Amino acid sequence: MTEQTINTKAVKSAMNDPKVMNSSVEVVPKAYLVSFILITLCFPLWGFANDITNPLVKAFSKVLQMSAAEGTWVQVAFYGGYGAMAIPAALFIKKFSYKAGLMVGLAFYALGAFLFIPAAGAQAFTPFLFAFFVMTCGLSFLETTANPYILSMGPAETATQRLNLAQAFNPVGSLLGMFVATQFIIQKLNPATDAERRELAADGSQSALEQLSVITANDLTVIRDPYLAIGAVVVVVLLIIAFKKMPITEEKSTSLDIKGTFKRLLSNQNYREGVVTQMFYVGAQIMCWTFIIHYGTEVFIKLGLTEQAAEAKSQMFNIYAMVIFCLGRFICTFLLKYINPGKLLMVLAAGGMLFTGATIFLDGLAGMYALVGISACMSLMFPTIYGIALTGTGDDAKLGAAGLIMAIVGGTFLPMAQASIIDMKMVFEGFSATKASFVLPLLCFVVIALYGKRSQQSLTK
What we know:
Distance between the termini: 41 Å
Helix content: over 70%
Shape: globular
CATH superfamily: MFS general substrate transporter like domains
Number of strands: 2
Low-confidence stretches: 1-23
Strand order of the largest sheet: 1-2
Strand content: under 5%
CATH class: Mainly Alpha
Largest sheet: 2 strands, antiparallel
């Protein structure tokens, strides 16, 4: 396939009103189908990285004898990379091309994965945090590049639909990441409990410390190996994209009107509110998927399971949540042909509020099922907020996309705040600290519902 250049006016209108519903317009034109499929392969790659990593908050806390709040530094390093690299990535692709952005992102992704080798050898937390940060600098490049690239690959009327279709494959990678985390990390960790590991550390004798060192080294190797495998896969994808001629959907720019672009974006209320909403959405998603392990462990220990069995059972429920999320993404992509994106976002956010409330107030398996149900409501949110926020931004969409990717830093401080509540290990008016901590995702869904309502009104004007 020879390189193609899409009509400039079509590119500039790629972020136009997503409320236009015309089922006769192609979602993905045939001319771009192969490239669309290839770029869509990147979506499950970062989904895998996100959701093999979430359970590691609990795993690292156990392996290195840390509190839940200390373990969430995994999330700070992981999602911090998004915030650090989003704007540089946007400037890079604005000056060069989407293809160049994809290649740089994949290179950083692979490098970060391979840095797990020296991190495991060091048996220390900080090298792992650095590896996570490098890896997510790559993911930031990928997401900043792939999302607007997909939006521009076809008619403006179907841009949001097209992004939802590509994003529908993201949870496939997430599901695989959760499966690998369960089968090849959590279940392969040494069965020694948190208390037993802390006893060995407190003992201080040479034999106890040697025993603890052997356990720790083995566990960190278990954590390392899946990242090496995904690093190899990323290198293969990088090589395919490097040799594949991709459609050119943007004009290269040597003069960057950064000041003017930021001024226009900051004056755009729909965009500003979209960035804030995206931050709260990502925070809610990470909180619900990270602390389902803590929530479930508490539930299943009360039902008579051992700590390790309870953790493994909780991760299986996390997989169920991702299956529902994946199915919901496809269903919502279909519904967007007939329903205004803002309205659907508002309705699903209200459903998220309902399920989160049930997670807090219901006991036992009922609360666990409610926590799983939240994922059905979240399935639509990221790409739809993204598409709505970029409505009418035209050539500013590349830097605008960076702001929406930077909003992923919501996955750093919000989970840490929830972990701090969990670490209190208190009972709040009959609710455990873990249950009470889910008031934070509840507040996030309130923000999302309000944005859905406001965007529905603004897009109909």
